[in-house]
Design brief:
about 70 residues, mainly alpha, about 70% helix
Length: about 70
């Protein structure tokens, strides 16, 4: 779903389009491979584990705030 939102926001790459079209229960290895490839195609550095964790927490907090 994040890939579809990225496309709507104006980001575009072949891997991102493929990622956006994957079924919800796709193979995790395939999802990760396409995710890494899409970041590379968009010249976005792959975040480290700590940075990714912080990003996830921030997004969860914003999601909880919107829900209340």
């Amino acid at each position: 779903m994040l890939a579809a939102h990225a496309l709507v926001d104006g980001r575009d790459s072949p891997a991102l389009r493929e990622l956006a079209g994957l079924p919800r229960r796709s193979d995790e290895a395939e999802i990760r491979e396409l995710y890494v490839q899409a970041l590379h195609e968009l010249d976005i550095p792959l975040p480290g584990e700590e940075t990714a964790g912080r990003w996830l927490l921030v997004n969860l907090a914003f999601g909880l705030r919107k829900a209340s």
